[in-house]
Amino acid sequence: MKQPLFLKPVFHERIWGGTSLKSKFDYEISSELTGECWAISGHPNGQSTVKNGTHAGKTVGELWEEKREWFGDHPSPVFPLLTKILDANDDLSVQVHPDDEYAREYEEGELGKTECWYIIDCDEGAELIFGHKARTKEEFVRMIEDGKWDDLLRRVPIKPGDFFYVPSGTIHALCKGTLVLETQQNSDTTYRVYDYDRRDQDGKTRELHIRQSIDVTRIPHQTPEVTHRVEKRDGVEVTTYVEADYFTVYKWRINGRASFQQDQPFQLASVIEGGGMLHVSGEKLSLNKGDHFILPSGMDHFELEGDMEIIVSHV
Ligand code: ZN
């Protein structure tokens, strides 16, 4: 019987990173500037590795190549999703991502990037940048050229538990004091449109991609429809946030004991709060905040027990 695959994440330092991944998730990291935890990743820029079972030591990308039956023989040439936790200890640059078509033409080997965010935690009064206020492309270009960033960028207040769906072509940025679980297409293509004119220790600014940003940004901005459907049954409350082209994302709020059938090609799961047990094929596996795992195709029915919150996604 197939077992869940528990994963060892990869951590990336970022100039806007901090220590929340260490302090809130207990990950062993030495850097004080850890910005990104690539928790479930088959991307060449940071592959997570299987920790348990017969496939221990294999990367997600290797498993996707060699054992596609574990993923319901899904036809994507690359592992299609990427789950990250981001610690924005400072403002991230304002950015936008291309769609598949643009990425295929200009970014060899990359997919477009549609993403979504579940706000795990944030400071009082925290915000993020989500969309812009230009009505036409001409206005968009003029406001960029004139540096009218305060007028152009759309700021949205946030609180823990909020969810944002960010299709490719949406101008966006996480701002200071935000801890987010991101589910996205497996892509690392970012066009930076504004970096607050920040300079590093050597007095250098980071590269901007204005032309590409103008090419790919949706004008005018449209805030996409988000589902927010809550279903309750014995031991679990399921909140569905988005059912879109690239992914479906929901939260399992476990309180007590609940049974599940894994009926997708595969599911990605991240424990973001609390802990408990996963019962499958007569085994008991402990679950703790910060654990990430894949529920493979054809896995036995399973039960979750405890007091915990798990963000789940599938293609
Ligand atoms: Zn992004």
Could you describe the 3D structure shown?
Helix content is 13%, strand content 44%. The protein is mainly beta and 315 residues long. The strands form five sheets. Strands 1, 6, 16, 17, 18, 19, 20, 21 and 22 form a nine-stranded antiparallel β-sheet that branches. A hairpin with a 2-residue loop joins β19 and β20. The mean pLDDT is 95. The site of zinc ion has 4 residues, from loops.
- Report the sheet with the most strands, covering strand number, pairing sense and barrel closure: 9 strands, antiparallel
What is the average of the pLDDT values? 95
Distance between the termini: 23 Å
Helix content: 10-25%
Secondary structure layout plus pairing:
Elements: E1 5-8, E2 10-18, H1 20-25, E3 34-40, E4 42-43, E5 46-47, E6 49-50, H2 60-66, E7 81-88, E8 94-96, H3 100-106, E9 115-122, E10 127-132, H4 137-145, H5 149-152, E11 153-157, E12 163-166, E13 172-174, E14 178-185, E15 191-194, H6 210-216, E16 229-233, E17 236-243, E18 248-260, E19 267-280, E20 283-288, E21 292-295, E22 302-314
This protein binds zinc ion.
Quick overview:
By secondary structure, the chain is mainly β.
Keywords:
single chain, Jelly Rolls, 6-stranded antiparallel β-sheet, 22 strands, binds zinc ion
